[in-house]
Amino acid sequence: MADLVGTFIDDDGLRLAGERRTYFDPNIGLVKQNYLENRPRYQGIGNYNVEELVYRVQRGGQDAASAIVSIR
């Protein structure tokens, strides 16, 4: 069976996608790479781990209770 899972697509999967006139856009790798290379720039924009909450309170000025409640 063809592997049609994103960046792991194999030759059979590409052939099947072509037969069904389906587009394949492998740029998700670029998005992931960009995030990993620029992770500090993304601090405080919604990843909601402990470091993010601390950043939002200490650097962003959000009160702790609001930061905690917002992760739900």
Notes on the protein architecture:
The protein has 72 residues and is mostly helical. It contains four helices and no strands. It has helices at 11-19, 28-37, 50-58, 64-69. The model has no long low-confidence stretch (mean pLDDT 76).
Topology of this protein?
Elements: H1 11-19, H2 28-37, H3 50-58, H4 64-69
Determine Rg (CA atoms, Å). Answer: 19 Å
Number of helices: 4
Beginning-to-end CA distance, first to last residue: 39 Å
The geometry reads as elongated
Percent helix range: 40-55%
What are the defining features of this structure?
0% strand; 72 residues; mainly alpha; 47% helix; single chain; elongated
Produce a short descriptive summary.
This protein is mostly helical and 72 residues long.
